[in-house]
UniProtKB/TrEMBL annotation, chain A:
<feature type="domain" description="ABC transporter">
    <location>
        <begin position="12"/>
        <end position="258"/>
    </location>
</feature>
<protein>
    <submittedName>
        <fullName>Unannotated protein</fullName>
    </submittedName>
</protein>
<keyword id="KW-0067">ATP-binding</keyword>
<dbReference type="Pfam" id="PF00005">
    <property type="entry name" value="ABC_tran"/>
</dbReference>
<dbReference type="GO" id="GO:0005524">
    <property type="term" value="F:ATP binding"/>
</dbReference>
<dbReference type="GO" id="GO:0016887">
    <property type="term" value="F:ATP hydrolysis activity"/>
</dbReference>
<dbReference type="InterPro" id="IPR051120">
    <property type="entry name" value="ABC_AA/LPS_Transport"/>
</dbReference>
<dbReference type="InterPro" id="IPR032823">
    <property type="entry name" value="BCA_ABC_TP_C"/>
</dbReference>
<keyword id="KW-0813">Transport</keyword>
Automatic annotation (TrEMBL), chain B:
<feature type="transmembrane region" description="Helical">
    <location>
        <begin position="6"/>
        <end position="27"/>
    </location>
</feature>
<keyword id="KW-0813">Transport</keyword>
<dbReference type="GO" id="GO:0005886">
    <property type="term" value="C:plasma membrane"/>
</dbReference>
<feature type="transmembrane region" description="Helical">
    <location>
        <begin position="189"/>
        <end position="209"/>
    </location>
</feature>
<feature type="transmembrane region" description="Helical">
    <location>
        <begin position="34"/>
        <end position="53"/>
    </location>
</feature>
<feature type="transmembrane region" description="Helical">
    <location>
        <begin position="261"/>
        <end position="278"/>
    </location>
</feature>
<keyword id="KW-1003">Cell membrane</keyword>
<keyword id="KW-1133">Transmembrane helix</keyword>
<feature type="transmembrane region" description="Helical">
    <location>
        <begin position="221"/>
        <end position="254"/>
    </location>
</feature>
Amino acid sequence: MKYFLPLTDPILEMVDISVKLSGLQILDSVSIGVPQGTVTGLIGPNGAGKTTVFNVISGFITADSGYLKVDGKKQKHVQPHHLTRKGIARTLQGVGLFPTMSALENVMIGGSSQVRSGIIAQALAMPWTDVEQNRLRAQSMAVLGELNIADAANRLPGELPYPIQKRVALARALVSDPQVLLLDEPAGGISAADISELADLIRSWVPKRTVLLVEHHMELVMEVCDLIWVLDAGKVIAAGTPDEVRRNPAVLAAYLGEDGAT
Amino acid sequence: MTTFIDYLLGGLGSGAIIALMALALVLIWRSTRVVNFAQVGQAMFTTFIALSIQTWTGSWYIALIGALAAGAVLGVIVQYLVLRPVKRNDTSGAIIATFGVLIALQAAAGMIWPGGSQAFPQPFNNSGIEFAGRVWPISIYDFVVIGITALLVLGLTLLFTKTSLGLSMRAAAFNPEVARLSGVRVSRVLTFGWALAGSVGAVAGVLVAPVSTISPNSFDILLVFAFTAAVIGGLDSLIGAISIGVFAGLVISLVSGYSDSGNAPVVALLLLALNLILKPEGIFSHHKARSV
């Protein structure tokens, strides 16, 4: 059975997406939508297929069937390096920072799609490439400042506490000024106080941006999300507001087993 | 002591050339995790092209520029035709492919430029300079070699640290998937890396040719020294390749001076073995360990 939820103004839609990897059905006719200007959660037990959803949206995995729509436009052959140009940025589980590059350089990489000069012009250090580089540096510093970590700009990731590294990873996603942010377990490995700050931060981005959040920390999900989709074993089993999802017997069964649901 | 200093001075020029070739190997390793054993074959081929250009035009400068361009083009051709079709993550397959390219280039050069070893014209005076009442074992040409190497190193340092392209190259080398997600066009950046390494190797070839001769196999020994320098330097470290490359030139000069030049490759391999036992990740590596 396909789960259906009427959505108004979805900026991101997956329609009937199926993915089979190594003979296993990872996603089975998954249809989900992310309304513009909301924080939408994507939850489910381990192995439910949440990260695969992100990988399909990012272009790392090609769906066997179904399609993706961004801002109402059907997408063909999404390429990971085109994602930020489409106004979508993604963070990874963990931090995924480049260890030999400073925090500022890590953030600047997130703005790569804004660099318009060609490879040859950059290699020959043409004057206009300096202008672009300086603009990107200033923009990256501004985002680090917004996240209150400007003083970490010249430090290597390994010299920074883990919560600060997480913020650098967020800054790298934000520097491209995305319309849609895909956050993959942003609360993983950080303290309760940091999670509370993270919740405020995520809510501060909407409605200007839209957030699709994969997270195991249920308190955070219930606090920040306007809408939640629940996956289990590659299928959508529920969707609704946090209160609706919290009370849904199918969700309880998926998380706690049949006994927990009764 | 004077003899010792003379041997050191005499090794600076060859050290700079080894450093350049090691640099070319490191540029490819950083971006693809493949040791490109075809690098000396590419350098040999482009040096023959440079020799042809010099014969036609009579200008060493035009020959050098021609070699730079030919090195870039050949690097891209090798990447597109040979390395790209090899399955990603099949490192051993890629390394074997580079050996295949080396053999193919040597065979092709033998057919295109027959006649065995050929002399490359001396662009600058290669006799020892006279200073303070004696002749020193370093020539104007050695200074030109050292100067060009220094300029290339400076240019590469600025490229990697001050430009978006350099940042993209570093990101793509470390984690191509994260780089892609951040908007980096990794395949283009990798292609540029192959072109860049091809050009750097070509410069090394054109610089070494006037002090030796050129034949399809004449750069093989350069591969031994450059590979040794790149591995001891840390394989992913540009500064390691340069420092150990120059150091290798000095060691070779000392070994050749105090014993016999035929012992130099043996000493290089001994240093390589010692390094792999004591510090397998290399002296300047960012990584804590590397499987060998």
